[in-house]
């Protein structure tokens, strides 16, 4: 399930909370709602009810969220401060081509 589908179902805040807790992995959705469930503590009761209603008993993939967006903001800031493309690429273990593409706005 792509992250956009989760956002439409649960809202951005709940998806961010899921990504912090389970990002890049799967979460097992309980069959029934109960207030003591871990998922309720992570995303709140209203979002947990929606998730359980839609995906009861299933495993749902939770995307990593904004980790790459945060990294991209750091890269852009480093470039503005005068860091070379090669230095940025080495630090983030990315290719120079990828850094150029990111700075042109070609990747998100």
Give descriptors for this structure.
2 strands, 7 helices, two-stranded antiparallel sheet, mainly alpha, 108 residues
SSE topology:
Blueprint: H1 3-10, H2 12-22, E1 25-28, H3 38-43, H4 45-55, E2 59-62, H5 67-80, H6 85-92, H7 96-104
Antiparallel strand pairs: 1-2
Distance between the termini: 19 Å
Low-confidence stretches: none
Largest sheet: 2 strands, antiparallel
- Tally of extended strands? 2
Q: Order of strands across the widest beta sheet?
A: 1-2
Average of the residue pLDDT scores = 88
Overall morphology: elongated
SSE order in H/E notation?
HHEHHEHHH
Beta-strand content = 5-15%
Please count the helical segments: 7
Structural class: mainly alpha
Helix content: 55-70%
Radius of gyration: 18 Å
What's this entry about, in short?
It contains seven helices and two strands, in the order ααβααβααα. The mean pLDDT is 88.
Describe this entry's structure for a reader.
By secondary structure, this protein is mainly alpha-helical. Helices cover 62% and strands 7% of the residues. The protein has seven helices and two strands. It has helices at residues 3-10, 12-22, 38-43, 45-55, 67-80, 85-92, 96-104, and strands at residues 25-28, 59-62. A two-stranded antiparallel sheet has the order 1-2. Helix 1 (3-10) packs across helix 2 (12-22). The longest helix has 14 residues, at 67-80. The chain starts with a helix and ends with a helix. The model has no long low-confidence stretch (mean pLDDT 88).
